[in-house]
Design a protein that fits this description.
With 196 residues, the protein is an alpha/beta fold. It has 8 helices and 5 strands; from the N terminus they run βαααααβαβαβαβ.
Protein backbone atom coordinates (compact mmCIF):
# COMPACT_ATOMS: atom_id res chain seq x y z
CA UNK A 1 0.00 0.00 0.00
CA UNK A 2 1.45 3.33 -1.08
CA UNK A 3 1.41 6.03 1.58
CA UNK A 4 -0.49 9.18 0.58
CA UNK A 5 1.69 12.26 0.16
CA UNK A 6 0.65 15.89 0.48
CA UNK A 7 0.30 18.03 -2.64
CA UNK A 8 3.39 19.95 -3.70
CA UNK A 9 6.25 20.17 -6.15
CA UNK A 10 8.88 18.43 -4.03
CA UNK A 11 12.48 18.61 -5.19
CA UNK A 12 13.91 16.17 -2.60
CA UNK A 13 12.74 13.31 -0.42
CA UNK A 14 14.26 12.95 3.05
CA UNK A 15 13.77 9.68 4.90
CA UNK A 16 14.29 8.56 8.45
CA UNK A 17 15.79 5.04 8.35
CA UNK A 18 14.66 2.79 11.21
CA UNK A 19 10.91 2.28 11.17
CA UNK A 20 10.59 4.32 7.99
CA UNK A 21 12.72 2.77 5.23
CA UNK A 22 13.63 -0.33 7.22
CA UNK A 23 11.01 -2.27 9.18
CA UNK A 24 13.68 -2.63 11.84
CA UNK A 25 12.14 -1.30 15.03
CA UNK A 26 11.20 -4.75 16.43
CA UNK A 27 14.78 -5.95 15.76
CA UNK A 28 16.18 -2.81 17.41
CA UNK A 29 13.96 -3.38 20.44
CA UNK A 30 15.17 -6.97 20.80
CA UNK A 31 18.78 -5.76 20.58
CA UNK A 32 18.12 -3.05 23.17
CA UNK A 33 16.46 -5.43 25.64
CA UNK A 34 19.27 -7.99 25.35
CA UNK A 35 22.06 -5.40 25.69
CA UNK A 36 20.40 -3.58 28.59
CA UNK A 37 19.40 -6.85 30.26
CA UNK A 38 23.08 -7.66 30.65
CA UNK A 39 23.21 -4.65 32.98
CA UNK A 40 19.96 -5.43 34.76
CA UNK A 41 18.16 -2.57 33.03
CA UNK A 42 14.59 -2.90 31.78
CA UNK A 43 13.41 -0.90 28.75
CA UNK A 44 9.61 -1.03 28.46
CA UNK A 45 8.45 -1.34 24.83
CA UNK A 46 6.13 1.65 25.19
CA UNK A 47 9.06 3.83 26.26
CA UNK A 48 11.22 2.46 23.43
CA UNK A 49 8.68 3.59 20.82
CA UNK A 50 8.03 6.89 22.60
CA UNK A 51 11.77 7.63 22.41
CA UNK A 52 11.96 6.77 18.69
CA UNK A 53 14.23 9.21 16.87
CA UNK A 54 16.55 9.82 19.82
CA UNK A 55 20.22 8.95 19.62
CA UNK A 56 21.55 5.76 21.21
CA UNK A 57 23.82 7.70 23.57
CA UNK A 58 20.92 9.88 24.75
CA UNK A 59 18.78 6.84 25.48
CA UNK A 60 21.48 5.12 27.53
CA UNK A 61 22.24 8.31 29.47
CA UNK A 62 18.55 8.84 30.24
CA UNK A 63 18.09 5.22 31.29
CA UNK A 64 21.08 5.61 33.63
CA UNK A 65 19.41 8.65 35.14
CA UNK A 66 16.03 6.91 35.52
CA UNK A 67 17.42 3.68 37.01
CA UNK A 68 20.39 4.93 39.02
CA UNK A 69 22.66 2.62 37.03
CA UNK A 70 26.06 3.62 35.67
CA UNK A 71 26.06 1.69 32.41
CA UNK A 72 29.06 2.66 30.25
CA UNK A 73 27.46 4.43 27.29
CA UNK A 74 29.97 3.38 24.62
CA UNK A 75 30.08 -0.27 25.74
CA UNK A 76 26.29 -0.63 25.86
CA UNK A 77 25.93 1.16 22.51
CA UNK A 78 28.50 -1.15 20.90
CA UNK A 79 26.83 -4.25 22.35
CA UNK A 80 23.38 -3.10 21.16
CA UNK A 81 24.78 -2.45 17.68
CA UNK A 82 26.40 -5.89 17.51
CA UNK A 83 23.15 -7.58 18.56
CA UNK A 84 21.17 -5.55 16.01
CA UNK A 85 23.56 -6.51 13.21
CA UNK A 86 22.89 -10.18 13.94
CA UNK A 87 19.28 -9.57 12.91
CA UNK A 88 20.02 -7.72 9.64
CA UNK A 89 19.21 -10.72 7.42
CA UNK A 90 15.63 -10.59 8.79
CA UNK A 91 15.10 -6.87 8.06
CA UNK A 92 12.71 -5.90 5.25
CA UNK A 93 11.81 -2.55 3.73
CA UNK A 94 8.53 -0.88 4.69
CA UNK A 95 6.42 -1.57 1.56
CA UNK A 96 4.56 1.76 1.46
CA UNK A 97 7.84 3.68 1.68
CA UNK A 98 9.69 1.40 -0.73
CA UNK A 99 7.01 2.12 -3.34
CA UNK A 100 7.83 5.85 -3.14
CA UNK A 101 11.58 5.15 -3.28
CA UNK A 102 11.17 3.00 -6.39
CA UNK A 103 8.85 5.50 -8.06
CA UNK A 104 10.89 8.66 -7.37
CA UNK A 105 14.42 7.24 -7.72
CA UNK A 106 16.44 9.22 -10.28
CA UNK A 107 13.60 11.77 -10.50
CA UNK A 108 14.29 13.53 -7.17
CA UNK A 109 17.36 13.29 -4.92
CA UNK A 110 17.12 11.36 -1.65
CA UNK A 111 18.75 11.66 1.75
CA UNK A 112 18.53 9.66 4.96
CA UNK A 113 18.22 11.65 8.19
CA UNK A 114 18.62 9.40 11.21
CA UNK A 115 19.35 9.41 14.90
CA UNK A 116 21.25 6.14 14.40
CA UNK A 117 24.96 5.94 13.71
CA UNK A 118 26.28 6.04 10.15
CA UNK A 119 27.51 2.44 10.56
CA UNK A 120 24.04 1.25 11.59
CA UNK A 121 22.23 3.15 8.82
CA UNK A 122 24.71 1.94 6.20
CA UNK A 123 24.38 -1.66 7.39
CA UNK A 124 20.57 -1.49 7.19
CA UNK A 125 20.59 0.05 3.70
CA UNK A 126 23.11 -2.52 2.46
CA UNK A 127 20.96 -5.35 3.86
CA UNK A 128 17.97 -3.93 1.95
CA UNK A 129 19.96 -3.36 -1.25
CA UNK A 130 19.17 0.36 -1.11
CA UNK A 131 22.44 2.07 -0.17
CA UNK A 132 23.10 3.28 -3.73
CA UNK A 133 19.81 5.21 -3.73
CA UNK A 134 20.95 7.61 -1.00
CA UNK A 135 23.85 9.92 -1.89
CA UNK A 136 23.41 11.84 1.38
CA UNK A 137 23.33 10.29 4.84
CA UNK A 138 22.90 12.55 7.86
CA UNK A 139 23.42 10.43 10.97
CA UNK A 140 24.14 10.73 14.69
CA UNK A 141 27.40 12.63 15.06
CA UNK A 142 26.77 14.80 12.00
CA UNK A 143 24.70 17.34 13.93
CA UNK A 144 24.69 18.77 17.46
CA UNK A 145 20.97 18.86 18.27
CA UNK A 146 18.89 15.70 17.70
CA UNK A 147 15.24 15.52 16.64
CA UNK A 148 12.88 17.23 17.38
CA UNK A 149 15.35 20.01 16.58
CA UNK A 150 15.29 20.69 12.80
CA UNK A 151 19.09 20.83 12.48
CA UNK A 152 19.53 17.38 10.90
CA UNK A 153 16.80 17.96 8.30
CA UNK A 154 18.11 21.42 7.44
CA UNK A 155 21.60 19.95 7.00
CA UNK A 156 20.27 17.29 4.60
CA UNK A 157 18.46 19.93 2.52
CA UNK A 158 21.64 22.01 2.36
CA UNK A 159 23.72 18.98 1.30
CA UNK A 160 21.20 18.24 -1.47
CA UNK A 161 21.14 21.91 -2.55
CA UNK A 162 17.39 22.11 -1.91
CA UNK A 163 15.28 24.67 -0.08
CA UNK A 164 13.54 23.27 3.03
CA UNK A 165 10.09 24.13 1.66
CA UNK A 166 10.86 21.92 -1.38
CA UNK A 167 11.57 18.83 0.74
CA UNK A 168 9.19 16.02 1.64
CA UNK A 169 10.04 14.06 4.78
CA UNK A 170 9.05 10.45 5.52
CA UNK A 171 9.04 9.77 9.28
CA UNK A 172 7.65 7.24 11.74
CA UNK A 173 8.08 9.13 15.04
CA UNK A 174 6.55 12.17 16.71
CA UNK A 175 10.05 13.60 17.26
CA UNK A 176 10.83 13.21 13.56
CA UNK A 177 7.57 14.82 12.43
CA UNK A 178 8.21 17.70 14.85
CA UNK A 179 11.74 18.13 13.43
CA UNK A 180 10.44 18.19 9.85
CA UNK A 181 7.72 20.69 10.73
CA UNK A 182 10.22 22.92 12.55
CA UNK A 183 12.42 22.79 9.43
CA UNK A 184 9.53 24.08 7.32
CA UNK A 185 9.14 20.79 5.45
CA UNK A 186 6.06 18.78 4.52
CA UNK A 187 5.94 15.30 6.04
CA UNK A 188 4.41 11.87 5.55
CA UNK A 189 3.74 9.89 8.74
CA UNK A 190 4.74 6.24 8.37
CA UNK A 191 2.50 4.12 10.61
CA UNK A 192 4.09 1.95 13.33
CA UNK A 193 4.59 -1.78 12.66
CA UNK A 194 1.36 -2.84 14.40
CA UNK A 195 -0.73 -0.58 12.07
CA UNK A 196 0.87 -1.64 8.79
Amino acid sequence: MRLPIPPGDFQAYLFDCDGTIADSMPAHYRAWTRALGEWGCAFPEELFYAWGGRTVDEIIEDLNGRTGLAMPVAAVADRREALFRESLPEIRAVPGVLAHIDDAYRRVPFAVVSGSTRASVTASLIALGLLDRFPVLVCAGDYARPKPDPEAYLLAARLLGTEPRECLVFEDTELGIAAATAAGMAAVRVPPPWLR
